[in-house]
Design goal:
The protein has helices spanning 11-22, 38-42, 61-80, 100-119; strands at residues 2-6, 26-30, 47-50, 87-92, 123-128. It has 133 residues and is of the alpha/beta class. The protein has a single domain, classed as Rossmann fold, CATH 3.40.50.
Length: 133
């Protein structure tokens, strides 16, 4: 099984990639600055672990582009290529709060749930506690 990990350069992403590889999975790593596009990364994967996102931006608008828009792009690519594969997203307990970060994480969660409903693909949302401040 080939697992795509977005946010592969982050603390959790690096450790998850290492664990998956040691467990015998093929891993496709994707992050800013990596060669190739998200479309390329999605091409041969069987499962997406979407960890990429923004939690400490210079400007609050980056919450939307890094959390909501990136998730939307990922889902749009899956749908356009008729890929109904499992999608896991790391979210935050902040999604329960009315602040810019929380609203962006909640919006990304909602996109993932809609993808599952629209396609029948299994989806998983994990609200991590104290992982990103």
């Amino acid at each position: 099984m080939n697992v795509l990990v977005t946010g592969a350069k982050g603390f959790i992403g690096k450790n998850l990639c290492l664990f998956l590889k040691q467990s015998g999975f093929d891993v496709t790593e994707y992050d800013l600055g990596y060669p190739g596009t998200l479309k390329d990364a999605l091409e041969n994967c069987d499962f997406v672990m979407h960890l990429a996102g923004v939690n400490r931006p210079k400007d609050e608008t980056e919450f939307t582009s890094g959390n909501v828009d990136l998730t939307a792009e990922l889902i749009d690519l899956l749908k356009k290529n008729d890929r109904r594969i499992p999608l896991l997203i790391s979210s935050s307990v902040q999604a329960e709060r009315d602040n810019p970060y929380g609203r962006s994480k909640k919006a990304a969660e909602d996109l993932v749930f809609a993808y599952g409903k629209d396609t029948g693909a299994p989806v998983f949302v994990y609200r991590l506690d104290n992982a990103f401040g």
